[in-house]
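Can anyone check this?
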Amino acid sequence: MPMSSRQLQDVNRVVKWNALSYLGLSALILLTITLFFVLRDRWQIWASTTRDVHYSALATQSTVSELLAQSSLSLSGIRADLEDPESPFNNESLRVTRDAMRFDPMSDFLGFRDRESQRYFVMDRHGHLVNSAIGRDVAGKLPSPTLQGLDIYPLIQIPDDEDWYLPLVMPVNDSHREVDMVFALIAVRRLIQGASTLKTLEDSFLALATTRGQRLFRIGGPNPNGEVNGPPVRADLVAQWLKTRDGNYRGVSQLDNRSVILGYSVSDSYPFLVIVGVPLSSLYVRWARQSLAPAIVLLLSGTLLMLLGRRLRDTVKNLQWMLETQRHASSHDKLTGLLNRDAFISEVNQWVQAHPDERGCVMLFNLNRFKSINDTLGQDAGDLLLVEIGRRLKASLPGEQSLLARLGADEYAVFATEETAQTWLDPAHPTGFSSLSDALHIQGTELEFSASLGLACFPDDGRTSDELLRCADVAMRQAKSDLQPIGRYLAARDHFSPDRLELRSQFVKALRDGALNLVYQPKVGLADGRLMGVETLARWRHPVRGPIAPLTFIPLAENSELIHAFTHFALQTALRQAKRWHEAGQEVPVAVNLSVNNLIDQGFVERLQLLLAVEQVPPRLLELEVTESAVMRHPEQVLKSLRAIRALGVKLSIDDFGTGYASLAYLKQLPVQTLKIDKTFIDNLESDEANQRIVQSAIRLAHEFGMSVVAEGVEQAVAADLLRDYGCEMAQGYYYAPPLSPDELERRWLSGPTPKSSSA
């Protein structure tokens, strides 16, 4: 059924908001991803910087401590020698200092202070005393030691020397000695060169301070030339750092009031600490540079999303007519304008779900001999016919009352309520189904055509559109087979239902497991009541359903390859039974029904010959019955097979004679010995004159061809008497005996007097 404008508006609204939602979601995802990378970069920069300044401070402190160890050893050696009680006083200090300098690779100057004169003696790296002016300058910059051990003083410069030197001072405690203090001067550039392998961060700085907070020097930072003996480090920070020994600190620089991240490390051997820092401003610059690419991507993506939004707005304006066009094309047949298969199935399912308690019908029909119209007048003419059928269908069943569809080729489907369907199918209805076949003029030719329709109803025949269409298709084929315009679905004639499929599987198992058996119905001579032979009939007792009628399970084999296995079972079982009777001295011919599928099988006669040889049964004891309708389906192949069978010595008979429309010209060619008159002509034989004439004619015809006659379905003595009077040789039916098991047949027919009827 067509989509309403309200539904289209709802679809438009949903599509629009879905598109906007996806657009907004895309923008949100893009922004989130960008923020994630930007914030991740910030965290990584801050974390790596904090880690790096800490490690740099540790490495620098360790390096400087190792460098100072050389000078410290020199001073300790000098003091030890001077404090030796056996050493002389006079010029021993100069000799000891000169010897220490010879083995000191780090100190630029070594010296001592005379206790009495307070004069400073300074010796250079070559072991020469420098001039007295340098000594006086050093004396003014090196106060007396305040510690008992090694101490570090603020940096000093020597006249006419640009280098700055780090003083290491150590007191001499023996008051009897002429020296009260020894010292070493180490060039700061040596310490810096020793630490030059450190990978410091951009815009970072490194500072060295004593444990008393005296800042010794600072390199890097805002002053590229460095700072010497700057302002002291805050006492609280020094006290905190002395406790923790190494770590990080984030705060404000005392020199330039900039926020910094510091790493610090206190030497365990000497009274100094190292500070490495990076201003936060440089980290923000680095973060900004690193975040530039994601920001550009975000900007470009945002611009593209804006352009996409504008295009989306323009697209949504054209969406309504596109949806309508596409909806109609996807749900309707292009040629007739009716619903297509998918739309029809969907609509039927919706109706079934919405009306579970109502009755509805699916009607499936197609045109008879449509291919001949296409082949004769061409495809264009065929298309015109299909369009006209669609037009007539719309006129006879308005869309408000039903669903109309073209499923493909010349196949149409209708769904309507049961009441509407009955009215439309009524032949007396002037615009009903019968009106579709009214004559039509196409390309100057008046076409007479007809249609076959199959009917299946909900919920009796199916509860889904697929089930209903399948059942309607089965009914339509039944109607074609019966040459009727309309066929109602009958489960009994449906060989492809799920139940039949399950039953077929169970039949295969029964055939494989030997769950089938044969019963035998006697053929009795009408003249003397003697047993002339038996017809074998198959029986199947289902373990759950009980006995299954042959009319139910025989078609399962007849319509598939199972017929060959089933026929082999029947022939083998019948031959073995005939052999047992033959060995017991009883000549009882057994008759087995054949399918036309057996006769058109080129290997059947060879297998039959092999079976006769294996079972060692005389061919005369086997009779094969073939229906008249089967003979007429494939006359040439069947005739060839029958002649080959007769050549084996096996008897042949025509079953159900009178129902297959066999021509006399063909009948006289058949190598058969017996003609069996169908039960339909035996019923009411005593009162139906037409049946009497047919039976008499058939008997005379058979005798003219040299055949004997068997009448089937004899149930009354009157019918038996009439048949005997007409010259019929044999009869079978419930008047004489029903189908019997081998034991019961032997008890009733092969021992003692032969009964003349079942009541005898």
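Reply from J.R.: I decoded it. The mean pLDDT is 85.
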